[in-house]
Amino acid sequence: MALIQAENLTKVYGTGDTAVVALDHVNLTVNPGEFVAVMGPSGCGKSTLLHLLGGLDRPSEGNVSIDGQPLAKMSDDALSQLRRRKIGYVFQFFNLIPILSSVENASLPLLLDGANSAKTKQRAIEWLTKVGLEQRLASRPDQLSAGQQQRVAIARALVTDPVLVLADEPTGNLDTKSADEIAALLKQVAKTWGRSVLMVTHDPRIAAYADRIVFLKDGKIVNETHLANGGAREPDGRKVSPATALAV
User: Do the Cβ atoms of 126 and 103 come closer than 8 Å?
Assistant: First the structure.
């Protein structure tokens, strides 16, 4: 069973003559342990799709299910609980709290969910060690490089053992070397640790780390590249060249 199931997902902002269709009847599935990248030009609906899939916003039409649970049927409280426990978020600008250490930042999702503080600290240390920061546990964000800060953010996203990680331009604020390291780490999140990862990116080189690239244009999926199978296809199944796939 797919971990994410989005059917006819539509988001319209405004009404009447001022209405803007940000997402237009999108159908998308993401399987357990799959790493999917979403690409497209500015304003094509990438971030809107991420927000709807993560339950941060509600669609105008269509449905989203996460791990078999339809989001539309959930109360606001139930949706908040699902976001805290089943979804981890990684952002372009890290969103770390400046006065807190790496351990304290990584612990926050568990603390906010009412977990025991001692167990929370241990879980944070475990994940920070897994992402390569065992020597920087006590460091504040201003004592870390941008790449290290993003590693803290990934540890924070994973500390609740989510089934899904949503990453919004996670390498957009990094140099080339750090960006490659973070993309490789997100691939490890999927392949070694079994989480589904859906990443929005503008960088084809970073998207190439994924199993599949979904291309959006004008709020619609225009084609997909299944990297493991070496082929890009239109939604109707027609094959397209990699160059055409990137020219969205």
Answer: no
Residue 133 main-chain phi, psi, to 5 deg: -115, 30
Average pLDDT, the chain: 89
Give 160-216 pLDDT, tens digit per residue: 999 999 999 999 999 999 999 999 999 999 999 999 999 999 999 999 999 999 999
Domain segments of the chain as ranges: 4-95+166-246
Nearest by Cα to 86 from 108, 64, 56, 66: 66
Which residues sit opposite 213 in a β-bridge?
37, 225
Torsion of CA 96, 183, 112, 102, to 10 degrees: -50
Read off the pLDDT of residues 113-158 as tens digits, 9 standing for 90 and up.
887 878 899 999 999 999 999 999 999 999 999 999 999 999 999 9
* C-alpha span between 130 and 192 (Å, rounded): 11
Backbone φ, ψ for residue 10 (5° rounding) = -135, 140
Taking the CA atoms of 119, 124, 130 and 134 in sequence, report the sign of the dihedral they define: negative
Q: How many degrees, rounded to 5, is the angle at CA 46 between CA 43 and CA 50? A: 140
**In this structure, which topology does domain 4-95+166-246 adopt according to CATH?**
Rossmann fold (3.40.50)
Q: Which two tokens stand for residue 154?
A: 């990934």
Facing residues of 164 across strands?
87, 196
